[in-house]
Structure formats: C-alpha cells, structure tokens
C-alpha cells in the first residue's frame, strides 16, 4: 500500500509549520500530492516554506498567520482559508524546562495555552466547519512520549502532552458520528530547535544512551506513522496514539 497516495488531492493544514517537524510534515504532504496550508506566527519563514513547496511542484501551497494560543487568531486563520480542509495536523508546540519548584509563575500557563488549548481551539474550529458542511475530516495531533511517561524538568510539557493524548480520545469519541477521525503521534526525541540545546549537554548525551536504538530520531522516522494517520489507510482508526521513539518508551527500568 502506498501510504503517501492517501493524501493525493487532499487539503492539509499544518500548524507550527515554520520549523522542525511542522516544516517536515508540510513538505511530506506536498510531496504526496496534497494541497498544503502552513500556519504559524513567523510569517517570513512560512513564506519561504511556501516558495520551496511551490518550487518542488506542490499542488497548492499557502501560508496563513496563526497563533494557536489565541482563539481569535485561530478563528481568523480559519476564515482566511481558501478551500475546505480535509486534514488538520496539530503540530505547534513549545517546551519550557526547569525544576517545577523553580519555574517562573507563568511558565505552566504558556505551555498549556499553546500545547493544549491550542489543540482544542484548532480542532473544535475544524470540526465545526466539517460538521456544518456535512463532511468528515481527519485530525492528527502531535503529542509526545512525554505524554505517556514522565521525565524530570519538563513538568508543564509532560502534563500538556498527556492531556493531548486524552483529548485525542475524548474528541474521537464525540466526533466519530460526524465522520471525523482523531489520532495522535507520540514521537520520541527528534533533533529539532525545540531540543537542540539539550542534546549538547551531558544529561542530553546520557539520555541518548538510554534510547534502546541508541540514536536521536530524524523527522523522516515519523513518516510512516504520520502518513498512516493522515490518510485513508487508517480509515477505521480513531482515538489511537502511536509512539515512534526508537524504543524509548520500553527502555529498561
Ligand atoms: P520546533 O520548535 O521546531 O517547532 C514548533 C513550532 O511550533 C515552531 O514552528 C513554532 O513557531 C510553532 N509554535 C509555537 N507556538 C506557537 C503558537 N502559539 N502558534 C503557532 N505556532 C506556534 O519544535 P518541533 O520539535 O518541530 O516540535 C513540533 C511538535 O512536535 C511540538 O508539538 C512538539 O512538542 C512535538 N514533539 C517534538 C519532539 C522532538 O523531539 N522534537 C518529540 C515529541 C513531540
């Protein structure tokens, strides 16, 4: 089965597409023949990505400004879409690290506002549009293995991602009746801006040794699971969370 073919002609929205995994997912969808709308706050980076997607022969590529933590911005971005969506990829996310006892007071809210409220705002906006138009849709949430197990020093992040796993199930349950499927990807550590500094440190290098497959993930390591969840090959899957982590979740206690 050609998983990428499942996206041919579909319109995919990728949030947080201005770097890292979002940029990668946008390129992957475009290469699979999808029309892609990339959304984030850094418009200059989105415009450069759109130019690259068009250059690579994308069916259609467009940028919309979006701050997922601001519900007004989410509503405005949906109003700005040029065509109905088929797939929404909730990828935007932030991490703030530090011991829980010493984190700045607003750190928890900042992480929750982006990683959890953002997924809620974008998903409900998309689902209302799909329900009102009498058509189904697909949502892929980017959670994390930190939503399934914990690590020290990233308390708000682990809580936000665990909530995304639970939200994936709650929305899958409510929205199956509208033909809307909601699943999540739970990546292990993939080298991107979000963690680049950490893997330069001693604890970061020590962590790599605890990954059974002994290496940091690459964005393309997620392609199989991402294409499965985004396309029709997962047509009878909803509410699932798939870890892709080099075995990190099954690392030895
Ligand atoms: P990244 O920092 O390169 O990308 C995150 C993107 O989200 C950035 O483009 C950023 O501008 C955007 N963003 C942040 N706040 C936003 C907001 N309020 N509105 C719109 N866009 C916003 O990091 P990465 O690694 O590409 O992260 C992508 C997703 O993958 C995140 O949800 C992250 O938690 C998740 N993830 C990453 C892992 C990794 O090891 N890199 C592992 C597991 C999950």
Automatic annotation (TrEMBL):
It comes from the Bacteria. Coiled coil: none annotated. GO terms for molecular function: oxidoreductase activity, acting on the CH-OH group of donors, NAD or NADP as acceptor. PROSITE patterns: ADH_SHORT (PS00061). Gene3D superfamilies: NAD(P)-binding Rossmann-like Domain. Keywords: Oxidoreductase. CDD domains: SDR_c. The keyword Protein biosynthesis does not apply. InterPro entries: NAD(P)-bd_dom_sf, Sc_DH/Rdtase_CS, SDR_fam. The keyword Oxidoreductase applies. Belongs to the short-chain dehydrogenases/reductases (SDR) family. This is SDR family oxidoreductase. It comes from Methylobacterium oryzihabitans.
């Amino acid at each position: 089965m050609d998983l990428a073919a499942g996206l041919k002609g579909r319109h995919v929205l990728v949030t947080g597409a201005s770097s890292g995994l979002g940029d990668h997912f946008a390129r992957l969808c475009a290469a699979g023949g999808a029309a892609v709308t990339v959304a984030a706050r850094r418009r200059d980076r989105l415009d450069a990505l759109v130019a690259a997607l068009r250059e690579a022969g994308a069916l259609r590529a467009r940028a919309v400004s979006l701050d997922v933590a601001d519900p007004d911005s989410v509503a405005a971005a949906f109003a700005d879409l040029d065509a109905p969506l088929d797939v929404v990829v909730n990828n935007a996310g932030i991490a703030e690290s530090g011991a829980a006892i010493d984190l700045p007071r607003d750190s928890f809210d900042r992480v929750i506002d982006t990683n959890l409220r953002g997924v809620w705002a974008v998903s409900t906006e998309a689902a209302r549009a799909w329900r009102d138009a009498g058509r189904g849709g697909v949502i892929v949430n980017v959670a994390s293995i930190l939503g399934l197990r914990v690590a020290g020093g990233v308390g708000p992040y682990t809580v936000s991602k665990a909530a995304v796993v639970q939200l994936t199930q709650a929305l899958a349950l409510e929205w199956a009746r509208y033909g809307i499927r909601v699943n999540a990807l739970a990546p292990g550590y993939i080298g991107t801006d979000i963690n680049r500094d950490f893997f330069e440190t001693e604890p970061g290098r020590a962590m790599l040794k605890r990954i059974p497959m002994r290496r940091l993930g690459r964005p393309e390591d997620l392609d199989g699971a991402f294409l499965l969840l985004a396309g029709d090959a997962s047509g009878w899957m909803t509410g699932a969370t798939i870890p892709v982590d080099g075995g990190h979740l099954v690392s030895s206690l």
